[in-house]
Amino acid sequence: MKLENIINLKKYPIHDLNSKTTKELINKCKNELDQFSCSTISGFILPKSIKIMLKEVQKKLDGVYWSKESINPYLNSKDEPSLPKNHPKRIFSNRNNGYLNSDLFEKDSELKFLYEQQELLDFVSACVGISPIYRWADPLACHAYNMMKPDGILPWHFDSCEFTLSILIQKSEKGGIFEYCPDIREPGNENYNEIKKVLCGNHKRVRQLKLEPGDLQIFKGRFTLHRVTKIEGNLSRYLAIPAYVLDPWRVNTPEHSRAVYGKVLPIHVARNKVRSDGLAD
Ligand SMILES: [Fe+2]
Prior knowledge:
The chain has helices at residues 20-36, 47-59, 110-115, 118-128, 192-199, 254-261, 266-270, and strands at 38-41, 65-67, 97-100, 134-135, 143-148, 154-157, 163-170, 174-175, 178-181, 207-209, 216-219, 225-228, 231-232, 237-245. The protein is α+β, with helices and mostly antiparallel strands. The termini are far apart. Residues 157, 159, 221, 226 line the site of fe (ii) ion.
């Protein structure tokens, strides 16, 4: 399994950060990320690699953790009655999706291999303009597949990792559209009022992204409220979501891991400390 069999290196030679083509690509991504907190590179992953990833998903369908538990934008399902009734933390929306957790992947998994390549990490680091960034220490969430069956929905939320890559493996026939509100919060500013507006149906600052199988999306998921609209038609939507973080030690909170990934490991309990950026999750 070589990187050249997975990424279209002829078009996007990310293994050579000093090449003119890659420098231009990094500039494009950086500009889009600065402006919209999201950037897309079309046809980044080769079709034959997408096929292999689809096969690895289909082989593990029995292991997917499906959940319909309602969540607030911080991926939490617990109410906090001490807060005002219309506080975003108290607004829960219907969710119906699943995750194929990273700990269930085969040793020779295509996605796991891709995630572990230093070339990809260095490229993403250059695109987000931050060095170092790290692979996520969370053993369940670090390079999961996000699974949505017909009628599935993923409501407005923030990710707990700073940077998420999304690679669409299989597209739904209709619906399943990624919507996002760029940079709606930042460390030290939760911006609850603006978040409340979006949750209550004001979509002035909402953008939509058209993603095709094989495209790579780089996305600042911790600071950007986002959702996936309802899956319509008969085909499920499968999305690979390898993630990168600023803190190599941090993992999901036990509550978040239970609600989203279906289990809590000792590492989630041992590392359950207040986040250094002060943001809720
Ligand atoms: Fe997300």
